[in-house]
């Protein structure tokens, strides 16, 4: 009952996608979700093309199932052109190219010519229509409650059916606020052909998130996130949903400060990108990975409102299995009701 036409198109067993989550979604998490029958997506993670190539090869060594690579089209400042990342993905013939924050139009025909499917995440019906016109294979409709950078102003419940209607028969994948089987069934009922889950998967052993980050995800409730531009150093004026930590509460009254990108902001720690040490200045929007050191509490704990539903760290395969089994049970129960 759960399988949708999109499952066939993308060669997957279950309509469940990993949300790309920057450095948190490395090869291990993506492979675990693909291996469990969903579609794992690894973020390019700010990595330069040679490092990304290594990561793609590692992901391929971990699973022979389809997977995706996510690229932010005009997101954070990068020391190399985003085109180089896309060229690499096409050269490597990754099964799916996932894009966000920008216009996918220039890349769709080239991707298709290379045998690569394209999915693009949007936050409004107008953007969905533009991406559909560009010929993408599926649209990810991201609601306001989503974690990470948030493209629009409309909740999943309202955006999803409108997007489905606007671009039918092209398939829509629902993102934002979904963390359990109830959310999966609701998304299908609203017309989605799959879900994309992020926040839930941070609390897995495979997620490349700092232990403090995982603990914060378990402890937080749905009212403890905020959509802000505070962590704007390196990617200014881009709204993102993050946990309301004491650091965030302290600076919210001066939210605009983060996007000023002052070079003299204090250094709060260090991390590694592509194997290289990178200093972290205050307000840099880089969620803490196991490589992060320093003042972890002042870093960017990106998370969505679904965080309230996340209470246990468990393997990604268990998350996928519980979503599938729970949704099947729920659908049978609903069908059996008088
Ligand atoms: C920690 C984190 C990092 C994210 N980074 C990215 C990213 O690099 N690229 C992207 O397309 N979306 C990113 N997102 C947004 C997700 O694609 C997706 O919209 C969101 O996770 C769905 O909401 P949920 O977290 O409630 O499941 C990120 C989300 C989170 C939680």
From TrEMBL:
Q: Tell me which Pfam families the record gives.
A: NMO
A single Gene Ontology MF term assigned here is: nitronate monooxygenase activity
Q: Where is the composition biased (Basic and acidic residues)?
A: 253-270
Region ranges (Disordered): 253-273
Q: Which UniProt keywords apply?
A: Dioxygenase, Flavoprotein, FMN, Oxidoreductase
Judging by the UniProt lineage, the source's domain of life is: Bacteria
Query: Entry's InterPro entries?
Result: Aldolase_TIM, NMO
Q: Which PANTHER family does the protein's record reference?
A: 2-NITROPROPANE DIOXYGENASE (PTHR32332), 2-NITROPROPANE DIOXYGENASE-LIKE PROTEIN (PTHR32332:SF20)
Name the UniProt record assigns to this protein: 2-nitropropane dioxygenase NPD
- Can you name the source organism? Methylobacterium nodulans (strain LMG 21967 / CNCM I-2342 / ORS 2060)
Q: What does the organism's lineage look like at the top?
A: Bacteria, Pseudomonadati, Pseudomonadota, Alphaproteobacteria, Hyphomicrobiales
């Amino acid at each position: 009952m759960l399988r949708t036409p999109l499952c066939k198109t993308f060669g997957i067993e279950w309509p469940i996608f990993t949300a790309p989550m920057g450095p948190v979604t490395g090869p291990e998490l993506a492979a675990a979700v693909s291996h469990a029958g969903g579609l794992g997506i690894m973020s390019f993670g700010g990595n330069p093309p040679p490092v990304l190539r290594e990561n793609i090869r590692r992901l391929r060594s971990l699973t022979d199932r389809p997977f995706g690579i996510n690229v932010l089209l005009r997101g954070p400042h990068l020391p190399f052109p985003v085109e180089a990342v896309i060229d690499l993905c096409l050269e490597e013939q990754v099964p799916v190219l996932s894009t966000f924050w920008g216009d996918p139009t220039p890349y769709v025909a080239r991707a298709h010519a290379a045998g690569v499917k394209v999915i693009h995440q949007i936050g409004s019906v107008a953007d969905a229509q533009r991406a559909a016109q560009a010929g993408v294979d599926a649209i990810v409709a991201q609601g306001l409650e989503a974690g990470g950078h948030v493209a629009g102003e409309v909740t999943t419940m309202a955006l999803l059916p409108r997007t489905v209607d606007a671009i039918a028969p092209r398939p829509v994948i629902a993102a934002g606020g979904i963390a359990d089987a109830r959310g999966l069934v609701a998304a299908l009922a609203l017309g989605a052909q799959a879900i994309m889950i992020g926040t839930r998967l941070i609390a897995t052993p495979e997620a490349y998130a700092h232990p403090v980050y995982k603990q914060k995800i378990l402890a937080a409730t749905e009212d403890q996130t905020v959509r802000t531009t505070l962590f704007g150093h390196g990617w200014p004026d881009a709204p993102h949903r993050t946990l309301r930590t004491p650091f965030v509460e302290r600076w919210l009254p001066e939210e605009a400060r983060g996007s000023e990108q002052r070079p003299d902001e204090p250094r709060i720690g260090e991390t590694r990108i592509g194997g290289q040490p990178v200093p972290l200045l205050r307000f840099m929007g880089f969620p803490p990975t196991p490589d992060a050191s320093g003042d972890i509490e002042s870093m960017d704990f990106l998370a969505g409102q679904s965080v309230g539903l996340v209470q246990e760290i468990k393997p990604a395969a268990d998350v996928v299995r519980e979503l599938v089994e729970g949704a099947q049970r729920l659908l049978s129960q609903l069908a059996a009701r008088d």
